[in-house]
Design goal:
The structure is a homodimer of 135-residue chains. Chain A has a single domain (5-133), classed as Arc Repressor Mutant, subunit A. In chain A, 53% of the residues lie in helices and 6% in strands. Chain A has helices spanning 5-20, 28-35, 39-45, 47-51, 76-84, 104-107, 110-126, 129-133, and strands at residues 55-58, 64-67. Chain A has a two-stranded antiparallel sheet. In chain A, a hairpin with a 5-residue loop joins strand 1 and strand 2 (64-67). In chain A, helix 1 (5-20) crosses helix 5. Chain A is elongated, with a radius of gyration of 18 Å. Residues 96-100 of chain A have low confidence and may be disordered. Chains A and B meet through helix 1, helix 6, helix 7 and helix 8 of A and helix 1, helix 6, helix 7 and helix 8 of B. Chain A binds a DNA duplex (30 and 30 nucleotides) through helix 3.
Chain lengths: 135, 135
DNA sequence: ACAATTACCTATTGACATGGTAGGTAATTG
DNA sequence: CAATTACCTACCATGTCAATAGGTAATTGT
């Protein structure tokens, strides 16, 4: 039941970008230094955020990254789903599709896991990067 | 962000015990067979539940396990905390104790993680074994 | 006495995920 | 020409998960 560094680092980058952006591009090297995160490691985390259209990366001298959306319009849930994968506490694919389920007692817990997933996602979707900045 | 088999198995055992108990003791071998879980593996999961006074184990012929509380008085959160450890999405001990925190941006996320933990625990504490049985 | 059963211990294994490190090429831009 | 992202491969060390295996001891009903 842990969120890994991928997701936590991504959040820190988003906050950093939001705080230091006046529209110009920010080199990832700066952020890596500021946040004390390996540049190479960050390099492997960011593409999913670019792909999703949340940030933009520009090559060349003076290039770097920039937010494409307002901090108030980016939710924590969004970032974590992109970097961590689905925020589901249990991956219960084993039951899905094959009915009747072979593990009765196990599937009796499925509605609860589904609801837990909903609770988690609802909360994380309600928090924005902007809200985090104001802490 | 996953709940491991330890917690999931423990829940299945609790449901099984609740369903098959008329006060008598149930051999763990029966449950292992019924739930298709390795007996040896179960043997290592149960002690924490015994220690917490949720179930009782009796040795000797005719012995086995039994619930010590009503299914309606045992919460899922309780079982998972005993078998999985603390249900916190982030173990942010690094900041605690040392002020001022060295990672400003990271700690800006702490209140959110705390709240997420609360949300998760609140939900899981609201669901009882009895409720699961009725699914 | 005997069989059943939990209680408790150690050790090992295979698979997988995590959290990086290292090094390179290509493309783009001021 | 230098800076910078984009994208790639490969590797590694550590830890966790999910068991498996085997044993001893203690307890209990019959």
């Amino acid at each position: 039941m842990k969120v890994s560094t991928r997701g936590r680092y991504a959040l820190r980058v988003m906050i950093d970008l939001a705080e230091h952006s006046g529209g110009e591009y920010i080199a990832m090297r700066e952020i890596a230094a500021r946040q004390a995160i390996s540049l190479k490691y960050l390099e492997r985390i960011l593409p999913s955020l670019v792909e999703a259209g949340i940030i933009e990366g520009v090559q060349g001298k003076g290039g770097g990254y920039r937010l494409l959306k307002q901090p108030g319009e980016i939710s924590v849930g969004e970032i974590l789903r992109l970097t961590e994968g689905e925020l589901a506490p249990v991956s219960c694919d084993s039951c899905v599709g094959q009915l009747p389920c072979t593990r009765t007692a196990d599937c009796r817990t499925k509605p609860m896991w589904d609801e837990l997933k909903r609770v988690i996602n609802d909360y994380l979707d309600s928090v924005t990067i902007e809200a985090l900045m104001k802490q």
